[in-house]
């Protein structure tokens, strides 16, 4: 595999992660913490958004470990661990924690990723 192709695949993975961040943030705009605590639809939307962030984070960790090491301030491993928690322990989720991740952590992680994408020549919103 040529370095250019490897870099292109990394950029594709980072774009997918960025899109997952945006979807998660969009889901939070459609509900509130109070609704999240009682409404199954809100619970599904927000947990799925956070879960997708974790899944895309795992893809970057698995396929591009040198990137993950270089940009260790983007908590890819922690995002994947939360994804596993959501996937395997749904009935015991703390919606306050999920809400905090979706409304505070996810936007912060997205802001950390965007300069990397811009430097790679990507046009990010």
From TrEMBL:
Membrane-spanning intervals of the chain: none
Keywords for the protein's UniProt record, in alphabetical order: Hydrolase, Nuclease, Nucleotide-binding, Phosphoprotein, Toxin-antitoxin system
Any one GO MF annotation of this record: nucleotide binding
GO cellular component: toxin-antitoxin complex
InterPro entries hit by this protein: HepT-like, HepT_RNase_toxin
Superkingdom of origin organism: Bacteria
Protein name as annotated: DUF86 domain-containing protein
Protein source organism: Fulvimarina pelagi HTCC2506
């Amino acid at each position: 595999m040529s370095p250019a192709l490897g870099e292109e695949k990394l950029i594709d993975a980072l774009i997918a992660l960025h899109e997952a961040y945006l979807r998660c943030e969009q889901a939070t705009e459609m509900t509130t913490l109070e609704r999240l605590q009682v409404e199954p639809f809100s619970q599904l939307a927000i947990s799925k958004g956070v879960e997708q962030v974790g899944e895309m984070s795992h893809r970057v960790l698995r396929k591009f470990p040198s990137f993950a090491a270089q940009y260790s301030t983007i908590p890819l491993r922690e995002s994947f661990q939360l994804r596993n928690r959501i996937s395997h322990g749904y009935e015991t989720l703390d919606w306050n924690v999920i809400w905090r991740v979706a409304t505070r952590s996810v936007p912060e992680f997205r802001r950390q990723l965007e300069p990397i994408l811009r430097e790679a020549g990507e046009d990010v919103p």
